[in-house]
Amino acid sequence: MNEFISWCKGRGYQFDGLEITCPPPGNCGNGIYATTGFRTGKAFITLPETDMINAALVVDLPVYRKKLAKIGGEKLKPMEILTMFFAFEDTEHSAWSPYLKVLPKEFNTPAFKGIDYDVNTLPLSIRKYWIDQKKEISEISEKLRRLFPELSHDKILWAWHVVNTRCIFVENEEHDNVDNSDGDTIAVIPYVDMLNHDPEKYQGLALHEKRNGRYVVQAKRQIQEGEQIFVCYGAHDNARLLVEYGFTLPHNLGAKVLIPQEMLLTLAKIAGIQVTREHEMVLEEVGLPSHLYATDEGPSWSLRTNIRVMLLEHWQMANGRWKKIIYSHDPIDDEVDEKIDEKLEIMLKELRNGVAEKAKKMPTDVKWMWEEQVKVCDVALQSFEKKEKLEEKEKLTEEYS
Ligand SMILES: C[S@@+](CC[C@H](N)C(=O)[O-])C[C@H]1O[C@@H](n2cnc3c(N)ncnc32)[C@H](O)[C@@H]1O
Fold this sequence. Notes:
Helix content is 48%, strand content 10%. With 401 residues, it is of the alpha+beta class. The chain has two domains: 244 residues, set domain protein methyltransferase, domain 1; 145 residues, no CATH class. The longest helix has 37 residues. The radius of gyration is 26 Å and the shape is globular. The termini are far apart. S-adenosylmethionine (SAM) binds next to helix 8 and strand 6.
């Protein structure tokens, strides 16, 4: 690590008052710790933007310019270029050697460990990501091995993981030799990529200060001496964290249950709502998601609005009249509100039982993903109990006052 720190300092990185370490229990790998306090807004890591490893930087390096010219100048996409870079760089002799030496040798993701989930055993919240990830790895591996037969699948798999677990969103400038048809918004940034993820505690905000030609990480709030400094990789549930990054969090507020429209309609019918084609069309036009999130106090406004749509009478929908009702700022009628609660409670109980039944039947390695979803349903259902208790209390207070 000392060699890496000296290497960073020699390149103009500034990170006074920080230390990279892997304290026990060591389940995060390395992380960045504050050895002094920082006030809100303080930029505690800065580095020259020229050290952001992005596709443009790689294709302009003479060795890669030559390699790409040799294969006929075929333009590659940013993820392919960065994967190629990490797959080719030699740990001992590369100009990035001190950095390459502190990178993980392996990853805990199912893809790296060769676990092949049956898609049908995965909850909806992770299914698409898993399919896309598998496709991306296999396409990149095939393409890079076709262009550079000296690269092995294992080396590419490792390099792809380095990029995927460490890259940051940045808006890169266009480059003639980069295929940016799907965008060019990734960079691996040494030192900054030592920051671990915690969506509740995170204090670090990373940003590219283009006008100052530097990349910085700032304190989002006061940081105390001794704290590990985190950033937020996104509002991911544990299934996503495992598949994308190879770890899970004990109390993850990113947990969610996806309820696509088809499922919403089925649940609504079970709850006795007469859903017509007209309701379906309005639901499509409103376009609000029905998902349940662990962070929500109860079912979200958008889920409640979807139920409200399905409870509209024909005359309330005709000639676009529904817009006035749904988008109105007036408080919802108590009777309608109660009806929404009544139907939602039935629907969510049904959903919860369905998910719990699935959890029982699922293979051990994915059962926990379903159980996490059961907990999200439980939290949503508890909100009805809380509401009922509160209403009872209010009634009693009214009676005795
Ligand atoms: C950008 S790197 C962060 C630095 C990394 N810990 C290292 O040692 O190089 C992302 C990786 O760190 C680990 N990680 C990040 N946040 C974590 C957390 N809260 N708990 C456990 N592992 C975490 C995961 O292995 C993830 O793939």
